[in-house]
Design brief:
alpha/beta; single chain; about 900 residues; 33 helices; 34 strands
């Protein structure tokens, strides 16, 4: 395992443990960084007078020190923990390890950011062969005592001792088969005693030593195991997916146990104050009578919907909904709540801001503004801009024919088709390495499946409810999920599932609809999504406060129309080279490249001129007077040349030259490092006829729109890869000459701008020299990152993850802008450019234009706009608003 990138913090004479219980707490909600989300919110609920079992929280700083000091706990921790444990004993009126009135505790993780199911928990800690008898006598319920004991042995053996929990599940299943019963609750006390005996024998057999009987040994084993789980593979994966720094660490909360498995007046459940899938203002959740919490979360038993509690436990249900309302009003956000009912008494075990789909997040934010819980600025800040991607992608075509194999629970909305895989490893292999679309099918998912869930298009499970692991994680990832499809008979060994007379094997295609719960055979067509009224409302609020304009990178009518639908305010990058790869055009382009004379090149370019002109007419028409930045040809010419014998023969025939001439030209243009070679404005200098043709097409298209449609056109012509001012001066003269010729010929006045793409460090540093010729700068941050860092974007994947793991870089610099290096060059260029040309328009058009952190930097740097891919336009609009509100 890679050594954690965690620096030590001093812990000597520090307060490392914070108590809570009996309506009082040493912590509060604002101490989330120190106490983790769980510890901080338990303390806050105590302060609100809610029924919370007493406990204490070991701070995140202890976790940081634990890793920084080679997995050694601070010397002062033991005494503080013992003191806090004695406080629990007083409040709970029970004693840890006592042979008459034993205190049992839970040991849970709690990072400052919610990481559901990624780290470890131990329940019922403090049970041994002596205390289990005391618990049975105290409660008068021997079956409950031994049920709790077998659960503790299984969980502790898995989490602390490192034994596979499936071996214990197999023994439990075998016992149910032997007794001919279906449910755990059907087993008797004697059955459970026998299971406990089998479990302990198996532990001794596997480890060569007995299961620990000393309760303090159990406690410290669990505490260290929870700290160890901060760096387990699934937690590492989750942090990477959600940009959670490993340096934060986790807190550990030790809390007096309350029991939902003592009988039919007991229950456990998970609930949300609003629907986390749709955002509807309606209580939402599930509960299980006579169960413990892991039964709900793990999906081992399919729970009942929360609405049924009103009939089953009316008094407790009324109390519970009152708590829901109190917590939501206090936190001013939708809450995710865990609770236990013991002998008809309600206990609150956790509250946190609930994870939700993007659609639900938008609706909840807009509704809460209407309810005066929050204001518009808070609503804007509350939505993760990247989550909006979930709203912008296709759903199933309602008119399409479908064969429904099964129906489960609609656990996470959206629809997806893909090849069936049955393991997380296969999902990762096919989904990432081979770029196949896959659906991960499991009996139930566990935290170990996180990497496969990330790689899959969607998740399907046979067991589990709406708050199972699969459902919660899928919703957080924005992936469709159908859970609890109980009619599926899944055979991992044969890699197949059987349902409704069909056998679906690994590799067969199915479709799942996370909005309806349907599982369908084959791939089902999709339709484009429609934007909700709440989405439009939120975007309107964002547009009112943001200062950065948002454009799109587009060169096709479809991309341009899509971007306009999403609110793009123009085109910030039209990559004209993308227009030349069409089958009809590539031949003319290749003729131009192999031509031996200027006249020959112009003849070929004349074939491309009307095609280019129509391209620009289409874009200008769609943009209706909004600015359109057109980058003149940028890539090296060898990218357009043929590779196959047939293509070479076709080009030779079309150009009227021999095959050898084409081969020689291809060899002549081959470059050792093409991204640093004969490309960008260097092409315009050496082959000015190419840029002449493109300028002519732009201005003729503009003239036709102005004359025929009487509409405004604002072309911004961008010269790429400028290194020295002289390059731009030469090419600007050429562009101005063509513009004057077209305006005289068409008798049309065209307002246009000429600028450059800043993508070389020298250009950024000498921006003051370039600005006199440039009316705008656009930072091409893809190439500026490559040329500044000396890293190829295409080749960096082989090592960038290692750099992130080692703490050399925090994020991939091609995903989020390197603000201290590349960003410094941008800031210098802005300052020096505007010192010469005060009204210099400046934007960014690299992939970073859709990244929220990079957008925030652009706001601070004083840019006028960002440009991004069409589907990132709403992301950029919201991120720009958040950036404006943070300054």
């Amino acid at each position: 395992m890679t050594k954690p990138n965690i620096k030590p913090k001093p812990t000597t004479a520090q307060k490392l443990v914070y108590n809570f219980g009996d309506g009082a707490a040493e912590g509060k909600a604002e101490m989330k960084n120190l106490l983790g989300g769980k510890g901080a919110n338990l303390a806050e609920m105590c302060s609100l007078g809610l029924p919370v079992p007493p406990g204490f929280t070991i701070t995140t700083e202890v976790c940081v020190a634990y890793y920084a000091n080679g997995k050694k706990l601070p010397d002062t921790l033991a005494a503080q923990v013992e003191g806090a444990l004695s406080q629990i004993e007083k409040k709970a009126a029970a004693k840890f390890g006592d042979d008459k009135n034993p205190l049992l505790v839970s040991v849970r993780s709690g990072a400052r950011a919610s990481m559901p199911g990624m780290m470890d928990t131990v329940l019922n800690l403090g049970l041994n062969d002596v205390t289990v008898k005391a618990l049975a006598k105290k409660t008068g319920n021997e079956r409950f005592a031994y049920d709790s004991y077998r659960r503790f042995i299984q969980m502790y053996s898995d989490v602390v001792l490192g034994l596979d929990h499936y071996m214990f599940e197999d023994m439990l299943s075998q016992k149910k088969l032997d007794r001919d019963v279906d449910l755990d609750t059907d087993l008797t006390a004697d059955d459970l005693k026998d299971i406990v005996h089998q479990y302990k024998e198996r532990v001794h057999e596997e480890l060569g030593k007995p299961f620990p009987e000393k309760v303090h040994e159990q406690l410290w084993g669990a505490i260290m195991a929870v700290f160890d789980s901060w760096m387990n593979p699934r937690a590492n994966t989750y942090r990477k997916l959600h940009d959670i720094p490993e340096s934060w660490g986790t807190a550990v909360t030790v809390q007096s146990m309350v029991f939902g498995n003592m009988g039919n007046d007991c229950a456990t459940g998970v609930a949300f104050t609003r629907n986390p899938s749709t955002g509807e203002k309606k209580y939402y959740g599930e509960f299980l009578i006579n169960a413990q919490g892991e039964d709900v979360v793990a999906g081992i038993r399919t729970p009942q919907p929360l609405s049924e509690m009103q009939a089953a436990m009316p008094k407790v249900y009324k109390q519970l909904t009152g708590v829901f309302d109190k917590l939501e009003a206090h936190y001013r956000d939708m809450q995710d709540i865990e609770f236990t009912i013991q002998n008809d008494k309600l206990w609150m075990l956790q509250t946190r801001n609930g994870k939700r789909t993007a659609a639900a997040a938008v609706k909840i934010a807009v509704d809460m503004v209407s309810e005066k819980l929050i204001d518009k600025k808070q609503a804007i800040k509350r939505i993760d801009p990247l989550s909006l991607d979930q709203l912008l992608h296709p759903t199933l075509d309602p008119k399409a024919k479908k064969t429904v194999l099964a129906t489960g629970l609609p656990a996470s909305p959206g629809a997806a088709s893909g090849k069936v895989v049955f393991t997380a490893e296969d999902a990762e292999s096919l989904g990432i390495e081979h770029r196949e679309k896959v659906i991960l099918v499991r009996i139930e998912t566990s935290p170990e499946d996180i990497h496969g869930m990330h790689a899959a298009q969607g998740i399907l499970t046979a067991r589990g409810g709406m708050t199972s692991h699969a459902a919660v994680v899928a919703r957080g990832m924005g992936k469709p999920c159908v859970s609890g499809a109980g009619s599926l008979a899944i055979d991992y060994a044969k890699k197949e599932l059987k349902v409704a007379g069909h056998t679906v094997k690994e590799g067969d295609v199915i479709t799942i609809n996370g909005g309806s719960g349907e599982v369908m055979l084959g791939a089902i067509p999709t339709v484009q999504p429609g934007m909700s009224a709440d989405f439009e409302t939120l975007m309107g609020w964002a547009d009112d406060v943001r200062k950065l304009r948002v454009r799109t990178n587009a060169e096709t009518p479809l991309d341009a129309q899509t971007a306009r639908k999403f609110g793009a305010e123009g085109i910030g990058l039209c990559r004209t080279e993308h227009m030349f790869f069409d089958a009809e055009r590539i031949i003319a382009m290749r003729e131009m490249i192999v031509a031996q004379t200027v006249e020959g090149r112009k003849t070929a370019l004349a074939k491309l001129l009307p095609m280019q002109r129509k391209d620009f007419v289409d874009l200008f028409t769609i943009m209706k007077g909004l600015p359109v930045t057109i980058r003149l040809l940028d890539p090296p010419l060898h990218e357009f040349l043929p590779h196959t014998d047939e293509d070479i023969r076709q080009v030779a025939e079309s150009a009227g030259v021999s095959v050898d001439v084409v081969r020689h030209r291809a060899h002549e243009l081959k470059e050792q490092n093409p991204m640093l070679g004969h490309r960008g404005c260097r092409l315009g200098i050496t082959y000015p006829e190419i840029y002449e043709m493109q300028a002519q097409a732009i201005f003729e298209a503009a003239a036709s729109i102005i004359k025929d449609k009487k509409e405004t056109v604002i072309p911004e012509i961008m010269v790429p890869l400028v290194m020295v001012p002289k390059e731009l001066a030469i090419l600007k003269d050429l562009i101005d000459k063509v513009a004057n010729e077209v305006m005289q010929k068409t008798k049309t006045k065209i307002t246009y701008m000429v600028g450059t793409m800043i993508e070389l460090p020298r250009a950024a540093l000498r921006a003051g020299d370039i600005a006199p010729m440039a009316e705008f700068f656009s930072f091409g941050t893809n190439d500026l990152t490559q040329t500044t860092l000396g890293i190829s974007r295409d080749d960096s994947a082989s090592f960038i993850e290692i750099y992130k793991q080692r703490g050399i870089v925090e994020v991939d610099p091609f995903v989020s802008l390197d603000q201290s290096g590349v960003g410094e060059l941008i800031s210098i260029a802005v300052e020096r450019g505007r010192a010469v040309r005060k009204n210099l328009k400046i934007g960014i058009c690299g992939e970073h234009g859709g990244d929220p952190a990079s957008i925030a930097f652009c706001q601070k740097a004083g840019l006028d706009y960002v440009s991004c891919s069409p589907y990132r336009v709403p992301v950029a609009r919201l991120a720009a608003a958040q950036a404006a509100l943070s300054t």
